Amino acid sequence: MNYFQPKPTTNFDVTVNIPGSKSITNRALILSALSGKTVTLKNILLSDDTKYMIEALKALNNDIDLDLQNKTLKIKGNKNPKFENLEIYIGNAGTAMRFLSSYLATGTGSATLYGNDRMNVRPIKDLVDSLTQLGVKVEYLNEFGFPPIKIISEGVSAKTVEIDCSKSSQYISSILMAAPNFKTPIEIKITGRIVSRPYIDMTLKMISDFGVEFLEKNNSIFIKPQEYYASEYLIEGDMSSASYFLAMALIANSRVTLNNFFKNSIQGDSQFLNVLTKIGLKVISFDETHITVEGIESYNGIELSMNDIPDVAQTLAAVALFAKTPTKVWDVENMRIKETDRISALKNEFLKLNADFKEFQDGFLITPKPLNEYKGDFLETYDDHRMAMSLTLIGLKVPDIKILDPNCVSKTFPNFFEEFNRIYLEE
Question: According to the model, what pLDDT value does residue 427 have?
Answer without folding.
Answer: 52
